[in-house]
Structure to design on (110 residues):
């Protein structure tokens, strides 16, 4: 699976996902760090990436999309260290993958 990690999450998250056998890119590495949400959305759709974000705007874009859609994993954890984010996300990630395989488009993690 292909993931695009939004700016509110660390680039280390992309490295973690890659270590789990998936493709991931952080918006900074895709030269989208200062891009609008719409530009990030369009990139994700064009490159068939699922967006992992803390930004509620992507959830709203998904819910309002009538044609070009991409799955959104909405991370609702507060600010924390990379280590704490990893400890929190690792046990949840297999279920996230399963939901995505089942065709879910919005996965909210809290």
């Amino acid at each position: 699976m292909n993931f695009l990690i939004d700016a509110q999450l660390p680039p280390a998250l992309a490295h973690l996902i890659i270590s789990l056998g998936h493709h991931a890119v952080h918006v900074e590495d895709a030269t989208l760090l200062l891009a609008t949400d719409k530009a990030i959305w369009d990139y994700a759709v064009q490159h068939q990436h699922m967006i992992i974000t803390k930004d509620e705007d992507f959830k709203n874009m998904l819910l309002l999309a009538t044609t070009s859609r991409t799955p959104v994993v909405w991370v609702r954890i507060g600010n924390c260290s990379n280590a704490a984010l990893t400890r929190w996300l690792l046990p949840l990630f297999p279920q996230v993958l399963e939901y995505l395989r089942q065709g879910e488009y919005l996965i909210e993690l809290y």
